[in-house]
Amino acid sequence: MVRHYPTKRSALVPTLLYAQDETGYLSDEVIAEIASRLDLSELEVRNVISYYSMLTTKPRGKFNVQVCTNISCMVRGAEDLFDHCKKKLGIGHKGTTADGVFSLEEVECIGACSWAPAAQVNYDFHENLTIEQMDRVLDEYKRKGTQ
Amino acid sequence: MADLVSHPDEVKIVSRRFGQGATNLERYLELDGYKAVQKALAMEPDAIVNEVKASGLRGRGGAGFSTGMKWSFVPKQSAKPKYVLCNGDESEPGTCKDRLIFEHDPHSVIEGVMIAGLAVGAKSGYIYIRGEYRYLSIIMQKAIRDAYAKGILGKNIFGSGRDFDVYWHGGAGAYEVGEESALMESLEGKRGIPRVRPPFPAVAGLWGGPTVINNAETLASVPHIILGGGDWFAKIGTPKNGGTRLFCLSGNLSKPGVYELPMGYNLKKMIYNVGGGIPNGRGLKAVVPGGSSTPCLTPDEIDIAMDFDSVAKAGSMLGSGGVVVLDDAQCIVKFALRTMKFYQHESCGWCIPCREGTDWLKKTLTRFHAGGGLKKDIDNMQYLSENMLGRTFCPLGDAAAMPTIAFVKKFRKEFEDHLEGRPCPFEKEGVVEQLPVLA
Questions:
Q1: What pTM did the predictor assign?
Q2: What is the CATH T-level fold of the domain A63-146, as seen in this structure?
Q3: What is the pLDDT of residues B103-130, one digit of tens each?
Q4: Measuring CA to CA, which of A134, B16, B84, B91 is 20 to 30 A from A117?
């Protein structure tokens, strides 16, 4: 990616996200590696990480369930959906299940407003959700995660 | 993959190739793809700019600035390289249109970037796609690779002796990055803090070079304008509001979806005819006409043309085309609170009026919704919001203040109904649950 830009630093944000996808989170080692490859200090990298809501320095579950509760989703029952996920998974906002399969997050608008309520599990969109459908979605990931 | 909808009133221009397999380059070429850029290669840069000016195309990201005019601000001579930057960081709540363009017609964005580049004398362009849209980044990366492989991008495009490069870039979750100067900061690998202007991006943008920044829908409209002519495009809309718009209908509607309608389409018709009206025998309470930052309209204010000037005349904004409909079971205080929670979460904290204002408004609204509101809070919220307007580097402060002012002004009675420890009249069983707080 670095070749696409006049400055190395420009590759930082997408690089961080790709690294996080590989390793699950941005550990100290990953941050140090990226900093050295892009000729930045670790502090500069951390400064950027803290700005972007998708980047995390803490481990998360294998499947990160992100329920949008922003306006278009809210008026179509997103809060009930999020509450249901909390109960079903037994965790709260930004929590991770003990088996490490799921994390849960209440997120801001994910661009699925016309297909609300919606959630993303990692990068996959699940739209026009009912509680029953959400159950099926979570059961499916649970199966995948414990295979 | 998002579902497609259709309605007989639609005029499909930007969405013409949706569902037609146009992510495939050969298919795109069959459907008149890359013909516009070949036409543009034979035109003088000024002629391209003039065609786009004549089309009445205005920025589809939300501000509604004339695209041709924006291009004309880029200096002809520049010591530093010039750039085209496509803003695909779509994150205004209520907006989900660029997603469909990237999903169904990625080459139209590439072609739009190329034409913009020819118009302003840039040799490279970047297409910034928000991080959550990973599947769209994959689609876009393939489209770019295919275009290079076919010789459409790279050296000597279409044998013209001119070179053009297009790159993809991805975000990692930040609403504010949709603001043009913050977008450039993000692309340069920094926090998305807005820049002081002037200098404007057209003079000093990406890496200090003159930069044209346009929304994905704006750029996807450009090839159609070059092929069909500016006059043709202008005639589709209303005066000074050329063409069509991808309206994202969401909320309490029977047929939500993204519909491409002519500029100036009547909002009432859009809700009741195109969107299928309000389900469950409910009535209409309010409409947010152009994404969460635009002031809401009440049912007696919606018989208006949906173009930039008419919606502005009605006291709101056409914004990003995100039409959010609320039925009469929705609590305005809660809706205002959820809107403010969003802006408080997304404020970068650079400017004090925005950082403190969104936080105080969120706190006040939270207390209000929980039944702890004081009568003076109502005026305080208004006063606080008004004092945020125009006092921040980027429009995020305005985006938080404007809807709040409208909610308080237009639904004062509903705020008063929450006073003196009364539980929210809209909550189930009269129990007010504390809304979860985003960390």
A1: 0.96
A2: Glutaredoxin (3.40.30)
A3: 999 999 999 999 999 999 999 999 999 9
A4: B16
